[in-house]
């Protein structure tokens, strides 16, 4: 199970079971990445945003969730639909923390989360070795923490925080 070192320890200092965490990620590997962060969100009041698939429906059946609009890759209509969804979710839920693993669905939630005063973090995909994903680059000005798994990314983005790559 992965832990968010600096964000995690800072968050836990003021983080009680009453703190609300918004977990945002596409389905598939991004969703699995959020699930791998369970040690961070397990005892939190949490809300999920992801795409509706058989897997996400089954895993999140007893969780509070919102279904995002996909596909998001360079799809302007869905970007605007997800921006509206982010506005509604963040105004309604008022999360203290917004944590995302990407992909495109992350951007409107990170931006609006930050504008509404939430702490924001992005956990970059293990597949990103030399450069940040487009989603991370777009969200970067609104991030309190960005986590990467490869030293090559730390060289390019010294403000990033290293976390060990999971065993594949």
Alpha-beta classification: alpha/beta
Question: Which percent range fits the helix content?
Answer: 25-40%
- Report on the biggest sheet: 7 strands, parallel
Beta fraction of the residues?
A: 15-25%
Head-to-tail CA distance between termini: 13 Å
Give the integer mean of the pLDDT values: 89
Count of discrete alpha- or pi-helical segments spanning 4 or more residues: 8
Q: Which stretches are low in confidence, meaning pLDDT under 50 for 5 or more residues running?
A: 11-15
Helix-strand sequence? HEHHEHEHEHEHEHE
- Please give the radius of gyration in angstroms: 15 Å
Number of strand elements: 7
How would you describe the shape? globular
- Strand arrangement within the widest β-sheet reads 3-2-1-4-5-6-7
Oligomer class = single chain
Can you tell me about this structure?
The protein is α/β, with parallel strands linked by helices and 168 residues long. 40% of the residues lie in helices and 19% in strands. It has helices at 5-14, 29-35, 38-41, 54-59, 76-93, 106-115, 134-139, 151-156, and strands at 20-25, 45-50, 65-67, 97-102, 119-123, 145-148, 161-162. A 7-stranded parallel β-sheet has the order 3-2-1-4-5-6-7, sandwiched between helices. Helix 4 links the parallel strand 2 (45-50) and strand 3 (65-67). The longest helix is centred in the middle third of the chain and has 18 residues, at 76-93. The chain starts with a helix and ends in a 6-residue tail after the last strand. Residues 11-15 have low confidence and may be disordered.
